Amino acid sequence: MRYISTRGSAPTLDFRDVTLAGLASDGGLYLPESWPSFSREQIAAMQGLSYVDTAVAVMLPFVTGTLTEAELRGLCTQAYGRFAHAAVVPLVQLDQQHWLLELFHGPTLAFKDVALQLLGLLFERFLNGSSQQVTVIGATSGDTGSAAIDALAGRAGVDVFMLHPKGRVSDVQRRQMTTVIAPNIHNIALEDASFDDCQALVKAMFNDAAFSGSFALSAVNSINWARLMAQIVYYFYAAVRLGAPDRAVAFAVPTGNFGDVFAGYVAAKMGLPIAKLIVATNVNDILHRALSVGDYSQGTVVPTPSPSMDIQVSSNFERLLFDLGGRDGHALAAQMHGFEGTKAMQLTNAQRAAANALFGSDRIDLDDMALAMRWAFDSCGQTIDPHTAIGLSAARRAGLGADVPVVTLATAHPAKFGDAVERATGQRPALPARIGDLFAREERYASLPGTFDAVTAYIAARAVAR
């Protein structure tokens, strides 16, 4: 399997190199040259498989030429052995049509663990025996940072610099990052910044020839293809348990950066029968506007109780536009450069028509988010976090036929957002025992101005040069 950039000018890479590279050298994002395809019989054969066996079956085509099936199985067994639930990502029924897919049983209580536990092992394997020292630079709206830090803390050959917007992540999210005291982990809180500001700085560092030429940069955000690859698996795992390939399943996905829902798009391209992918946004609704009226224009980020979705520039949307636009990298590069210059872009009619064949979208405000949390608690006995509630609200409003099962991706443990959950339900969720001492642990992080010079100077003083 070989990988190409959405912007058409970067070198074609194999799976090892695309994992270590993260962002493409032309500013684009990597995708496989072609999508693997599964027959109905191959999908039916996944029924009853464990999560590890499903992961091996789904991901093997993407790693061909780099990892053997046995090597991939060993990595998956190790990665998912750290999850607190035997099913890894259990399905929970809410009513006759609606289900939750609980993706938060990993070490840091968020869906990012599903991909990043594996990504950490891939980094370690690909760097083993090499003199190369990789500098991982990431931006987080809360959950990516803690999941990446847990996966990479103490691993040889990797230094991690994680940027988060100061005061705009929950206390639990922040502490899960800043209480990991390891010599290769560096947390940076950017003052007066949004997640978009953090993400823009990361992209600027990759695209600055002088800085990126001095360090072997890599990424753990969903700009890294291996992140998305691992997330494709749970769409297959859930769908076959609800009748695929003999019936189509819909998924409601709370999303900000479009990575999680793009993994569902890839699953559909691989042959999984998906009735609809419902893109659920909060009031930071650039994705809903893009999909519903073609308006992909950047607004001002509004802080909400669902901070992981407080995003106005969705990096992975570029991957979708590339695939829907006939994979014309040069045309997409021009379109994205225009957006980067003006902060506004109108989708073409062809892009909108192709997207609407599979995607729906909804914008969920604070009241509807709280009502969904209350409904899940009162009617189903389930406590859900604000992000999951946004997905569930969109799922219940989607108007799909009663014969279509709808799976809402439950993206975070409710205890990570205790204040919001308590306001909606009257009950404060407890942290699981394995991180119950989180608020007693020492914190360590640097507060920096959100400027390119300040951040690059901090990293350059601590990272290992090429």
From TrEMBL:
Keywords: Amino-acid biosynthesis, Lyase, Pyridoxal phosphate, Threonine biosynthesis. It catalyses: O-phospho-L-homoserine + H2O = L-threonine + phosphate. Pathway: Amino-acid biosynthesis; L-threonine biosynthesis; L-threonine from L-aspartate: step 5/5. It is an enzyme of class 4 (lyase). CDD domains: Thr-synth_2. Its EC number is 4.2.3.1. Its cofactor is pyridoxal 5'-phosphate. Residues 2-80 form the Threonine synthase N-terminal domain. NCBIfam families: thrC. This is Threonine synthase. It comes from Sphingomonas psychrolutea. The lineage of its organism: Bacteria, Pseudomonadati, Pseudomonadota, Alphaproteobacteria, Sphingomonadales.
